[in-house]
Write a structure and sequence with these properties.
The protein has 9 helices and 14 strands. It is α+β, with helices and mostly antiparallel strands and 350 residues long. Among the domains are: 105 residues, Outer membrane lipoprotein wza domain like (Outer membrane lipoprotein wza fold like); 77 residues, Outer membrane lipoprotein wza domain like (Outer membrane lipoprotein wza fold like), CATH 3.10.560.10. It is elongated and about 90 Å long. One of its GO terms (molecular function) is polysaccharide transmembrane transporter activity. InterPro entries: Caps_synth_GfcC-like_C, Poly_export, SLBB_dom, Soluble_ligand-bd. It comes from Psychrosphaera haliotis.
Length: 350
């Protein structure tokens, strides 16, 4: 409703005059350009903009004004106090002139209420308000610490900013795959590309949800005051219950989970899953530890006899990228998509 009025004022302004509008920016509910009367003031413009936000600085604000002179125009900056204007001070309730720009500043060190969610084996799980610079150990202490059934070595810590980054990387990778598929389609190697599978992977990467996991050593965080993680708004910590199984996934005969056997090595679990399939890459077998760290044996699982497995670990046997002729990005794409899937599966297990 305001825009047509502003356009009418602009269309009817007389030569040499300024349009009777003023702009307000900053911490008001509806910043923008508003028509003004001859007796408009700071408080009237603030009211027209829907009032102040809770983060508005009441001590200092600023009006930027254009002063027309014979030699040209000159901009002037006028400071005011909203607190004093609201208390009745006429000198601080500055009169507004055409083309003024009023800036309502934000309070210094202002931040919205930040929260972190603790779940799983903590004494008092729930959502906690956090202060700037607070550490994870302090928040856990406020939650009563961990229960006797907790497995801190398998703690899952997720951060919203990392989740958004992962989703962006997945989208970028999907776009690169689409470009390469288009290039392959007009090259001599098109016949060797598994087009349907790649298109399916591109579709999955486009809609995949990020996990945002940050690998932490929760035992050390709770025991070493010099080793901590500063928490952020939207962080999540899930502390699992003590687990007694080991999972084997990927290119094995039977992908399954096994009861943890003390002293069993990586090779023992692979054999218990039926061994490797023909398309398995035995030189790239790796272990995702319960805390999210990835452990890669020295050479292959045949020579990795020193690779001990712990409860909650996941053994991953990837496909051999050279088993069939695939796109150069296929291996990276599968790896990223699989890691996200493993992360989501870990979240679902709590």
């Amino acid at each position: 409703m305001i825009l047509p009025l502003i356009k009418m004022l602009e269309a009817n302004v007389t030569p040499g005059s300024l349009v009777a509008t003023a702009e307000i920016t900053g911490k008001v509910h509806f910043p923008g350009i508003y028509p003004i009367s001859n007796e408009a003031s700071i408080l009237e413009l603030v009211s027209a903009a829907g009032g102040l936000q809770e983060s508005a600085n009441l001590e200092i604000g600023e009006v930027s004004r254009i002063n027309q002179r014979a030699s040209g125009s000159e901009r002037e900056h006028i400071r005011f106090s909203l607190q004093k204007a609201l208390s009745g001070s006429e000198s601080q309730n500055v009169a507004i002139q055409p083309k003024d720009v009023v800036n309502v500043f934000q309070q210094s060190n202002w931040q919205k209420e930040s929260r972190i969610t603790l779940g799983g084996e903590v004494v008092y799980p729930g959502t906690y308000t956090i202060k700037d610079g607070e550490g994870l150990a302090a928040v856990i202490a406020r939650a009563g610490g961990l229960t006797k059934f907790a497995a801190p070595e398998g703690a899952f810590f997720a951060r919203e900013s990392l989740r958004e980054l992962e989703q962006k990387q997945a989208r970028d990778l999907a776009q690169n795959l689409s470009k390469e598929l288009a290039f392959k389609s007009i090259s001599n190697s098109f016949g060797s590309v598994a087009v349907t599978e790649v298109q399916d992977l591109v579709s999955k990467l486009t809609v995949v949800e990020g996990v945002g996991r940050l690998i932490i050593d929760l035992d050390r965080i709770l025991s070493d005051e010099n080793y901590d993680v500063q928490v952020e708004d939207g962080d999540q910590l899930l502390v699992p219950t003590l687990r007694g199984e080991v999972s084997v996934v990927g290119e094995v005969q039977v992908a399954t989970s096994h009861i943890y056997n003390e002293g069993w090595l990586l090779e023992d679990y692979l054999k218990s899953s039926g061994g490797l399939r023909a398309q398995a890459d035995s030189d790239r077998v790796y272990v995702i530890r319960a805390n999210g760290l990835v452990d890669i044996p020295d050479s292959s699982w045949l020579g990795g006899e020193d690779t001990l497995i712990a409860p909650g670990d996941t053994i991953v046997v990837p496909i051999d990228a050279s088993y069939t002729d695939r796109l150069t990005l296929w291996e990276k794409s599968t790896s990223i998509f699989y890691q996200l899937t493993v992360g989501l599966a870990a979240l679902a297990s709590f």
